Amino acid sequence: PDYDIVIRGGRIVTAAEVFTADLAIRGGTIAAIGHDLGKGREEIDATGRLVLPGGIDPHCHIEEVGADGSVQEESFVSGSRAALAGGTTSFICFKPQWRGQTLAQSAPDYETRAARSLADYSFHQIITDPTPEVLATEIPALAARGIRSLKVFLTYDPLRLTDGDFLKVLASARRLGLLVTVHCENFDAIAWQQEALLAAGLTDPVHHAWARPPVVEREATLRAMALAELVDQPLQIFHVSCGEVAEEIARAKARGQKVWAETCTHYLTHGVDDLERPDFEGAKFVCSPALRDRSEAARLWEAIRAGTIDIISSDHCGFSFATAKKDPGASSYGQGAAMLRPDGTPAFNAIPNGAPGIENRLTVLFSEGVSTGRIDLPTFVRLTSANAAERYGLGGRKGTLMPGADADVVLWDPELERTITVGEMQHAIDYTPWEGYRARGWPVMTIRRGEIVMRDGVLLAQPGSGRFLARGPYAAIAPRGVVPNGFDTVGRGSGQT
Ligand code: DUC
Ligand code: ZN
Ligand code: ZN
Ligand code: ZN
């Protein structure tokens, strides 16, 4: 045979167009796209199917190790199986830094753990403590090893940065050509509201949302964009939850700032009312930023169609309901001292923030977006893989169906209807926010670097078959060359530490 695999007669979807052709794979990469291609050792009939680039989930928390030593129960094995089952072949998760420690001291075994992944992976380095050593030595060393994005938090006690420390991280990133990603919420505003709510005896899961209304997200987003403008450093805003935040981002973009935004699947399908589900089930929907009024989803779709939001991630951050959400113990993703209520359930501030979504991201977005006619197929590809590849330095290799690119390919049945239920899922968490959701559009085969890793829901890859994706320098995140006062603080060599 001429090729390892030939996929025949599918509708190939790229970031720009949809066309019917055959796709041939050899040696883990895409060898040819066209008609009347030679024989494959494996011949796949894709009539009636879409042929999509493998999904890239650029924001997910997998087997994360907290400052308190807690390890998230979603392991690199279960989390990556979930990814492949859902049509995602690459993801980017978070290497921790614990305050008071160097990067090297924080979870030194994290990369070894990650090597068990079945999907390809990379890391964002979380920075909680930008000491001179971290800035001058450790971040440059990381960049040289292909970890080219940093993550900062403006809330969560063990993680948050002051504005001064945030500026140092932005300056370091600009000097080295790294992308900074940011969680935008105002820590003090949340703490202040939270204290008042708890004092008033308002401790239910829904009060999580009361403590962090849209304005705390909007303020922090504006502040983050302002600081990034001062440094002339591109910025990726994570998990935009509502229209008023998207509007501020659109304004910054219109002024020419290099700022980009993602939202997450759950903000399109869930609302603050989910936090009021009975029997403490609302705890399953505690995530940050919080779920909003149902009317916000329409505003997010507008922002997506306008290009203000151009990536949809999962922010997969799984905590099982049976354990963490009923008896949280320690977690980096709560705020304030854990308080138990008379019935033994935790007050809202002690419920770990996050929900699992890596496995359902593509099918939910397809159902909500493509099957309903809100977006076309190329937009679906841009939102789920192509834009993340460009933004995070994986362009040409991932998120594209072009000869020479890695053969990460998903065969998608656009008509297949299935009801999502946790018992049929690969992830390790004991619930899914989409339990009972009727999806239309489902992945039937996932190919990762030329290997069939999922077929009709059956996982075929072995732990450790995923590869670390070292990322080189890339042009998309070059600074603009514009500083507000004509004095380029970073260019003058200031802000070194
Ligand atoms: N939000 C979550 O809901 N979970 C993890 C971290 C975050 O920012
Ligand atoms: Zn053909
Ligand atoms: Zn976040
Ligand atoms: Zn997150």
Automatic annotation (TrEMBL):
GO annotation, cellular component aspect: cytosol
Family annotation (Pfam families): Amidohydro_1 (PF01979)
Xref: Gene3D superfamilies: Metal-dependent hydrolases, Urease, subunit C, domain 1
Keyword annotations: Hydrolase, Metal-binding
Coiled-coil intervals, chain numbering: none
Modified residues (N6-carboxylysine): 151
Domain Amidohydrolase-related: 50-453
GO molecular function, a single term: metal ion binding
PTM description: Carbamylation allows a single lysine to coordinate two divalent metal cations.
Cofactor: Zn(2+)
Entry similarity comment: Belongs to the metallo-dependent hydrolases superfamily. Hydantoinase/dihydropyrimidinase family.
Protein name as it appears in the record: Dihydropyrimidinase
Lineage: Bacteria, Pseudomonadati, Pseudomonadota, Alphaproteobacteria, Rhodobacterales
